Automatic annotation (TrEMBL):
It catalyses: Ni(2+)(out) + ATP + H2O = Ni(2+)(in) + ADP + phosphate + H(+). It comes from Streptomyces showdoensis. Belongs to the ABC transporter superfamily. SMART domains: AAA. This is Nickel import system ATP-binding protein NikD.
Amino acid sequence: MRGGRSVAAVTDADFDLAAGECLALVGESGCGKSVLASALLGLLPGNAETEGSALLDGTDLLAAGERTLARTVRGRRVGLVPQSPAAHLTPVRTVRAHLTETVRALTATPRGGRRAAAEAAAERAAFPAGHLDRYPHELSGGLAQRAATALALIGDAPLLLADEPTTGLDRELVDRTADELRRHADAGKALLLITHDLAAAERVADRVAVMYAGRIVEITPAARFFGGPGPRHPYARGLLDALPERAFTPVPGLPPELSDLPEGCAFAPRCARATEACAVRPDLVASTACHHPWGARDA
Ligand SMILES: Nc1ncnc2c1ncn2[C@@H]1O[C@H](COP(=O)(O)OP(=O)(O)OP(=O)(O)O)[C@@H](O)[C@H]1O
Ligand code: NI
């Protein structure tokens, strides 16, 4: 950034995602979820720097050049449901034109079958056939969201990144969209579902990764996260307790500025379990980065 300052938007993200698996990535606004997804697609802003590797079937996405990314990765090997779908649609083309063009570019469907394939893609994402000839500015947020999901599913990519794919949808459509994305995983593909909607995550995820201030602080099977023992990291437990159908108690305080992170555990200032030990940053050990994780004896 200006003045030589830098922001650690994502740090030490270390996880794997198997074919056929859905990993939900959750955490408060600004914690780095979208930056992580953008990094995997080579879509970070020009001022961003990355280190490390992100392997997809042997290709290091962080090392790949723009040409490789554009020709063989984006859409083909890594699909994206972008967080702001309206901004990713071309203003002068209808939804039908977007879908048909994507079918042409990403599938072997012969010319005569493309219209039907475009309509089938819309149907998968619950985009109403009657609105296919609308232009992006004529779409509500929820319709733009469904158009983006329809577009992202067409390429049948081995890895699908869905960044808040259910924003602006009511519960029935959230469930329908989540189930459709889950079918993508069930067909043997990997799904990274970025979401604020823990109910959607519970519905379809195999594992849950919780991010706080740019770091993954817990990564755990969904059955454990939502079920009996619950998460081990106090922040992860706080997210669940904030749900209206649970304690409805928000996590107190606000996340830190990423440009001004504390030395030790970034969550300590908001954590009821924090002690002097938390002045040292905890490593991710046994799936949790915390000096005082919840365990069996707390339950
Ligand atoms: N180009 C940039 N320059 C400076 N800071 C940036 C840049 N891009 C991202 N950031 C920082 O990274 C943080 C993480 O942003 P990101 O969009 O990944 O959050 P998020 O978890 O996806 O949030 P939300 O849930 O609101 O979508 C931002 O709050 C911002 O501080
Ligand atoms: Ni985001």
